[in-house]
User: Which sequence fits this backbone?
């Protein structure tokens, strides 16, 4: 009796495996049919253009003529293609990722993908690079974007607050008279996250930003305190200081939306005039905001 049951179980497993292979074959065939013949990508959203002869092409590659049969494309849309798109797994569009996700999760993943495309935070670079390769780009030996990357450790394992870091800058006579100045970035690694301090001048305003190489949700878990002060004095002893306290900006936001400390020319000159060569310093510390369990639920 047990041998019969064992044989039945084997046959059932074999049947299930055969049906699974058949299903995969059908899915693979459907993917081939809706693959764009120009870019060889499978559309991730509808509508999907279709020519009178039933050939598909993605919206980005659609032209006046069908790339497969050369007849006029017209305005046809395929409901069947959209149904297929919504019921298959899609490969992440970022080159170095390669993971697959259901249709209703692919865009959510793209927003936090570790390989998503970002723009170099240096104002005069604007090079597009995968997030996983951003530090490599910034740390290029002959690069002009960053001085390199340093690691910051916590002063206390209990409080999770970093030691105060101080960066020194100089403003030449030419830069003090000009409207636009862009300093090299200072890049740091803190715990398992990286960020940079971005200093520059635009339209007579000096700006001091903290850009974290992470999504907005991750940035909200951190807090940075930053002070601009005289070069030959600590932030506490400086006669003139300007301070900012808040979360870092995400690498994902547009430069026009970036926020931080902004100092007008009059205020900055009070610091620069304290030094013969227009020197100033930026001191900052970073900490991770502690999270506490919610006992109400």
Assistant:
């Amino acid at each position: 009796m047990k041998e019969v049951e064992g044989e039945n179980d084997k046959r059932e497993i074999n049947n299930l495996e055969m049906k699974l292979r058949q299903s995969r074959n059908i899915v693979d065939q459907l993917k081939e049919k809706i693959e764009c013949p120009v870019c060889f990508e499978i559309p991730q959203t509808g509508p999907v253009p279709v020519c009178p002869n039933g050939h598909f092409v993605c919206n980005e590659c659609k032209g006046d003529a069908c790339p497969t049969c050369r007849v006029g494309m017209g305005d046809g849309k395929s409901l069947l293609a959209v149904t297929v798109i919504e019921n298959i797994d899609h490969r992440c569009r970022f080159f170095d990722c390669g993971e697959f996700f259901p249709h209703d999760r692919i865009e959510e993943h793209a927003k936090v993908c570790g390989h998503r495309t970002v723009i170099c935070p240096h104002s005069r670079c604007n090079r597009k690079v995968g997030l996983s390769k951003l530090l490599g780009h910034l740390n290029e030996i002959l690069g002009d974007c960053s001085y390199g990357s340093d690691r910051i450790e916590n002063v206390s394992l209990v409080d999770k607050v970093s030691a105060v870091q101080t960066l020194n800058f100089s403003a030449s006579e030419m830069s003090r008279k000009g409207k636009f100045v862009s300093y090299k970035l200072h890049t740091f690694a803190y715990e398992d996250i990286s960020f940079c301090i971005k200093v520059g001048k635009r339209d007579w305003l000096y700006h001091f930003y903290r850009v974290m190489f992470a999504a907005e949700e991750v940035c909200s878990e951190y807090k940075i305190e930053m002070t601009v002060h005289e070069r030959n004095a600590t932030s506490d002893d400086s006669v003139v200081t300007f301070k900012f306290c808040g979360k870092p900006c995400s690498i994902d936001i547009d430069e026009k939306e970036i926020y931080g400390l902004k100092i007008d020319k009059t205020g900055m000159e009070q610091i620069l005039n304290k030094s013969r060569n227009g020197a100033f310093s930026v001191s900052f510390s970073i900490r991770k905001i502690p999270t506490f369990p919610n006992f109400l639920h």
About this structure: Residues 2-34 form the longest helix (33 residues).
